[in-house]
Amino acid sequence: MKTTESIKPKPYMNPYLAGFLLGLVLLATIYITGRGLGASGAFKSVVIASVETVAPKHAENTAYYTDFKAENPEGPWKNFLVFEVFGVLVGAFFSGVLANRTGLKLEKGPRVTNGVRIAGAILGGALFGYGSQLGRGCTSGSALSGMAVLSLGGILTMLAIFGGAYALAYFFRKLWLK
Description:
- 69% of the residues lie in helices and 0% in strands.
- The chain is built from 8 helices and no strands.
- The model has no long low-confidence stretch (mean pLDDT 86).
């Protein structure tokens, strides 16, 4: 009988094949649903549903929530993106199980403490989430789906994401290298 430590994880998928398959998924999503991929809209739906539950008077008297309700009459929990993100989480979990890559692990460089890594991840995620609302979409929604339909906004978003990452990489690389 093999122990968990003796079972090696399967190798990662070829990135070119993975990109090609992601493109097919994106095309299928546009064809089937009439819209592209995205994740930040799902989180917005969950926040709106939470506010409507906890502070219904506030939600009724705020234009942001009433506008969302007018655009989504079936409610925030019936939003396609909520189901998409749920499917991504379930699919990622089963993919990790099949490849023997499940478990909790904190990836960090040798010069970074656990607290700094966790705080940086939370701050970076919050800033990216806020930016995705300002930019009307996240990496998958605005950049990936936008570029798939040759949207100038999608192309500019992708350039800004990669340009910002390359510009900041110089300052953060010493945290990850030995």
